[in-house]
Amino acid sequence: MMSDPLQGKVAEYSSFITNTLQPKLQLAVKDREETEAEICEYAQLRNKLQWIETGADGPINTLVDISHQTIYCNATISNPRTVYVHIGFGFHVEFTIQEAISFIDKRILYLQNNVLKHRVEVAMGIADDVEKALELLEEFKEADED
Asked: What gap in Å lies between CA 82 and CA 48, rounded to an integer?
């Protein structure tokens, strides 16, 4: 049977892991996954723009997201030489195809080298904290058995 002070510490660390560290880790992983998805979306857009640049002469039929990936509508791009690209914070900029590809390449590099790198480091740090807290709990339990 655990002594009262030791039992209190075990309860305190268990609560800390459950109520603080695990939610932080889940949020950090969610943020990392959102950044990875954004990078993937930009890469897909770049591939489509490269396809348009190399072979599309007339109008292009496509689906357009009009409600944060919940509602789509059919659209026809009459002049596929210019496109609007979401650049963040709800802003869209009209680019030529080549300008859009250039912007997307820079945006992907920025997301990979800055945003994603930071979010991975944060998630790894929190995961390390969880691991250390769990090890400490095991030490408390082993100390009680002795």
From this structure: 13
- Which helix (DSSP H) or strand (DSSP E) does residue 87 occupy? strand 82-88
Enter the pTM of the model.
0.79
Backbone angles phi, psi at 127, to 5 degrees: -60, -40
What is the Cα–Cα distance from 60 to 77, expressed in whole angstroms? 5
Report whether 116 contacts 39 (CB < 8 A).
Answer: yes
**Number of residues in the chain:** 146
What is the per-residue pLDDT across 6-48, written as a single tens digit (0 to 9) for each? 778 788 888 999 999 999 999 999 999 999 999 999 999 999 8
Neighbours of 145 (CB within 10 A): 6
Distance of CA 119 to the CA centre of its chain: 8
Check if the beta carbon of residue 111 is closer than 8 Å to that of residue 52.
no
